[in-house]
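Input record (Table S2, row 141):
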Amino acid sequence: DVNVMKDVTLGFGQALEKCREESQLSEEKMEEFFHFWRDDFKFEHRELGCAIQCMSRHFNLLTDSSRMHHENTEQFIQSFPNGQVIARKMVELIHGCEKQHDLKEDHCWRILHVAECFKQACVDGGLAPTMEMMITEFIME
Ligand code: BOM
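Output record (hexadeca-10,12-dien-1-ol complex):
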């Protein structure tokens, strides 16, 4: 459900400011995390992959090999209202994307490609929130 995805993204995005410095992600490369869902958002900065890695670590969603920790990720998603509706689906989508990019050795680049694949899978599956939803909610917070 797109509304749950909106909440999960905004929750995950709470870690962006904390991760900016260590990942060298300037505001020019990503102003706010919800821009992830823009149609024209570009997955071209390695720093964004590093930031997503840092943000995932912040919520304890990664294994020692920087792959998704399935149980923790499912619990994280379930911690949002109605999260159980999409938790399994999201874990499956991310895992499918991980399998496609598993040979990439650099964690930041690999995670950037996994994130791009995940976004496309959400768009294809009707799970991607609109920018209007993201901005409205972001302003209300
Ligand atoms: O193998 C590396 C696993 C990293 C997964 C990164 C995919 C996440 C994309 C970023 C968008 C996130 C929105 C919500 C995430 C909740 C987990």
